[in-house]
Amino acid sequence: MAEFELHPQLLADTHWIGDLPLCRVLLMNNSNFPWLVLVPRRVGLRELFELSDDDQLQWLAECNLISRVLVAELAAEKLNIAALGNMVPQLHIHCLARFQSDLAWPAPVWGKAPAVAYLDEALIELLTRLRAALHRGGLVFVDAS
Asked: Where is the HIT domain (predicted)?
C-alpha cells in the first residue's frame, strides 16, 4: 500500500505547520499573503469529491478551523478558499487571508506579484502563532514524524 507523500512542488514552496487528523497544514513561503494550504493525507487524490464521505466532513471541519484562525489571529477581511490543482495535481486546498490593503486586492493573488520569502524571524513568529491558535481551536495535531 502506497504511503502519503507531499508533491515535490508543495514541499519546495511551503513550510510545515502541522498535521490535523486528515490534512497536512502548510504555510506558503510568500510573505505577501497569509496563505495556508490543506493537503488531505490520502494517496492519489486530485479532487475533493474523491474523499470519502467521512473525510469530506473532516476536511470541512479542518477548513472551518483554519478559516476561523485566519480571521481571529490575522484579522482577515475576506477569505479565499480554492482547490485549483492546475499546476500541482495532488489534492490541496488554498486558504488565503485577504485584506483591502494587500498587493492583489481585489483580484486573485496568482501572478500578481513575485513571491517574497519570509524572513526567518517573521516565519518563526507566524508559525508559532498559527500552531498555538490551531491547537486552541480544539483539533489536536498529529505527530508528523
From this structure: 36-105
Under 8 Å between Cβ of 95 and 38? yes
Around 115, how many Cα atoms within 13 Å sit in the side-chain half-sphere? 12
Cell numbers at 67, concatenated = 478559516
Per residue in 64-111, pLDDT (tens digit) is 999 999 999 999 999 999 999 889 999 999 999 999 999 999 999 988
Grid-cell match 490535523, residue found? 20
- At 53, the amino acid letter reads D
Rounded distance between C-alpha atoms, residue 12 and residue 83, angstroms? 19
Task: Name the residue ranges covered by the structural domains of the chain.
Answer: 8-136
List the grid coordinates of 48: 475533493
User: Domain 8-136 belongs to what topology?
Assistant: HIT family, subunit A (3.30.428)
